[in-house]
Design goal:
Strand content: 15-25%
CATH class of one domain: Alpha Beta
Largest sheet: 9 strands, mixed
Radius of gyration: 29 Å
CATH architecture of one domain: Alpha-Beta Barrel
Structural class: alpha/beta
Length: 695
Amino acid sequence: MLKLMYITNQPEIAAIAEEYSVDRIFVDLETLGKEERQAGMNTVKSRHSREDVSAIRQVIHKAELLVRVNPLHEGSAEEISEVIARGADIVMLPMFRTAAEARTFVQLVGGRAKTMLLLETKEAEAAIDEILAVDGIDEIHIGLNDLHISHGMDFLFQPLANGMVDALAEKIKAAGIPFGFGGIARLDEGMLPARFIIAEHHRLGSEMVILSRSFYDAWLKQETEEIRRVFQYGVKEIREFEQRLETKDAAYFQRNRETVIATVDKIAANIRAKKQHAARMTTPQPVAVNQLDYETLNRIGESYGESFYLLDTDQYAANFQELHQAFASRYPKFAIAYSYKTNYIPAICQRLDQLGGYAEVVSRMEWEIARRSGVPSRKVIFNGPFKHADAVEGLLVSGGVVNIDSLDELPMLEEIARRNPAATLHMGIRVNFDIGDGVISRFGVDADSDLPRVLDFLAGHSNMELTSLQCHFATRRLDTWAPRAQGMLALIDKHGLKPKMVDLGGGLFGKMHDSLKAQFTSPIPTYEEYAEAAASLFATHYADVPEDEKPLLLIEPGSALSGDVMRFCCKVKTIKQVRGHAIATVLGSVYNINPTLNGKNPPLEVFHCGKETADYQDVNVGGFTCIESDYLYKGYQGPLAQGDYLVFGNVGSYSVVLKPPFILPNFAVVDKTGGITRQVKRPEDFDDLFATYAF
């Protein structure tokens, strides 16, 4: 079993970590040179003190106390002596480069504590043979963060993927010195999930690993019970996984290594691309947004590009909370799984995760967005009629839920289950049944003919769990919500199912301006009305069931949350008369605001530039494309002049994600949350458009 090490200077957290079998508590005194090396990086620069060593020593009794001191400097002898006097069991030396430095460190410790070298420079890597010849080195930890920086790499796990750690491990083991490397998050979390890293530790014979900030961030102020839960279950998951690894053969570890290499290469390539883009782009000047007026819009346009989307993630949060309250007040065991395909701007996805929502994705691309947004796999639900096998396997193995849409997916799942016998695969089933709307949906397995076959398939695999029963119907009509809830409950009762989650899918109206509401032929339901139609049925059905046995009720809204959180802002470029009809042209397109071409006029505000205006009775607002039907708005009435800003509301659904870079690159997305602008999607440039072409 790996020795687990956790960095903290907080006695309460140290005591909890020890209680749940963390082997070493790690006090970090390193400050010299660290700020400069890791400038601009999302890393923790500890501010621990020597007094913290004494404080931690007083509360831990079984765990060893590890103290990282500063790189060798004129005060090293005094620093090392003091931390040993305060109770350090192990002293770690960072940022050394030569065997001479290692020898000096060993001499300064003088046998009063164990010595550990933190190998994290390319010079130390190159000199490993001479370093291993130094007497008195008790342990070596390979520090991937600074090591990858030292080599000019893009991602901290590249030294593991490219064989560098393999070469070091072979030599360190031959010298008979215990070693470890890197850090890990919770088992199924992290850009490179911890389970893949732990398998590499076992393959290489490593004996120790750091529980990273992403395992539990001590900077977060959480309740003691939440901290306790993280360590209790997080360490338990790791230990259980390690036990399963003891039964694996060489082929398993080879497949795992191939997965690690492929994943790391992809992540590193993405990071490189981001760096290259960032190098080309200037940082826009933020703009204060107290109210929308022409001057404010013009300042935003000057900073981010003349046409732009204006996002309000605070409005998204308000919509989320209102919708959640409507359902949870009737059936408390409730959660929202936001439909990424509607608008997957990372600023929205990250806000969703902060709010406690799930990510509902329908492609490998959308899952990648969730991963890069920091969403843990266990909060991801994978839907859709087509799924890449590698994405399905990656998500299932890392703890996410995949909903079966077709019998033809079963052979793929069979193979995944065979390759991962130790993993619990959380499966869902998307079911298709009649809700009386006169439409035969193309999504899901037939509830009458195919559902029993899928249930038998899951029952035949010990490592598959029926986690979710899901449905989706492409209608927002209120009168279809009770039938879909009733249909799901009937299927649960008919087949004696006990899913952990019951997912009613999406299809809800959201907030919209009265001018848009008036264009619908029937009333627009409220969140409360949808909740009453569906959640109340679940409350009644499960009224006598113990709370821990009730399923989690989910819905998958898209437009209902994001529709009104974004506006599109563009200037009038020309106004002309053609055979008695007024036509205005703007720097924008119908595909920027209404790519589904539903024929409805969006809410429109006009902000005048100060030029002389003319009053129009019937102006059609056309886009910059050479498509005849490209009209953003038909029949505008009122004053208008060249240079005016037009602001189109309720454009948060599909506008950014469906708009191709047709004729011109796409525009920036600017978040005005908090009253100050922040660019959350920069304007595209020609390099973005042409990167995949061969010239």
